[in-house]
Amino acid sequence: MKLFQKLLVAPAALGLLAPMAANAAELNINGVSDYSASSEEVKSISQFSDVYPTDWAYQALTQLAERHGCKTANTSGPLTRYEAAALLNSCLANITTATTDERRLINEFSSELAVIKGRIEGVEADVGSMEAALFSATTKLSGNTVFVVGGVDGVSEREAVTFNYDTKLDLDSSFSGDDLLKIRLRSGDFNGSDPMSGLETAYNSSNTLNLDRAYYQFPVGESLTATIGADVRQDDMLGVWPSSYPSDSVLDVLTYAGANAAYSLAKGPGAGITYAKDNLSASLVLVSEEGSDASQGILTEQGSDDITAQLAWVGEGFTVAAAYTTSDGGNTTGAADSEEFDAWGISGQWDLDNGISLNAGMGWKTPEDENDASNIEDETTWSVGVVWNDFGSEGNALGVAIGTSEGWRDDSGYDDPMAYEVYYSMAVSDNITVTPALFSYERDGQDDVTGGLVKTTFSF
After folding, report:
1. Which residue, among 218, 269, 104, has the nearest Cα to 84 in the 3D structure?
2. Which of 23, 63, 362, 369 has its CA 20 to 30 A from that of 106?
3. Residue 387's pLDDT band (boundaries 50, 70, 90)?
4. Fold for domain 140-459?
5. Looking at residue 25, what DSSP letter applies?
6. Taking a C-beta distance cutoff of 8 angstroms, is the pair 35, 48 a contact?
């Protein structure tokens, strides 16, 4: 069985097993069916009859229960043979040497006792095997699956409607109550060459389950939090994300708080530290995108290293943050490289009393070496987004945004391409959200792309 299937089956198996373990000593309907359907010959009609207060077995059981402190669920009416056997089984736990009457009871209900004993042993064996496979008691499994049905207009031979998915499984563990070990598995089937690959949820793993996060976060004193990981993203380590837009993302380019280069979301081996006290937050993080490759490594000339510093102020109903990122791009040639740059950004959000959140941000990127022929030049990005929570109905949200679809360059004849989107997120239940959306993004020197989609998110 594949890991993905195991992760889905385990919670269901536990849910079925729990009531069995809790009621192991009680009558099991499956046990009765198995017993009655067995090949054992029926020697007496008493095998199917109830045990009445006038029967010797009833009186012997009552005396046995009184002597050893056992209790029966029904002390005034008749008992079924399985109820009598269950009572006898509970009393036998307190008996070291059986009397003549007790041995007679054991012989009388030997068949029922065998079924009960077999069921209990089977349940105990199942519980033991499941406990060996369980996660730590401090580990939580959660995740979501996103279904996207949509298509675009404006791209020759790539305008067909498609149906894609993106699934994330998070394993969050804590060992002290204040720390976090996160492991994320992810799978998706978006085609990287299709126009829908511009969506934020457009993950492509060719339907295989991949490791997407692996990091550990822990407190250092009262005001410091450290993060270290073999596969961690820049924003996982920052103390603040300075935007509430989007609440339900559509275009990826509009999810960077307007400062697309400063908040590059570089991912790989990394470490970071955050100081947070009162309203102030300050972070310093490092991500080495090729840090797992021995031929490139961490903080080497060959490896691509991104260092980000962030300073933020979190007030009542608003947040503002400034960020600086420097990236060497692993450039050892000395030639101009778009991945070797310095970037700055300032972003913020303001939450109004009526459920509306205003978000805006702007960023600047300066390459280490410019090359106009290769469009390696200074760039500017920005975005403005509005989220109206509980619009139309509680739990729903309306989102509208506009921003740059790529870094703007100060070139003669440059088109300054834009990106636009509008979505309406509808909470069908606590675990299901349906989001129709329209979007459009321009491309310098190419046709504009306009599209629509319906995204359904299942959280579990």
Report:
1. 104
2. 23
3. very high
4. Porin (2.40.160)
5. T
6. no
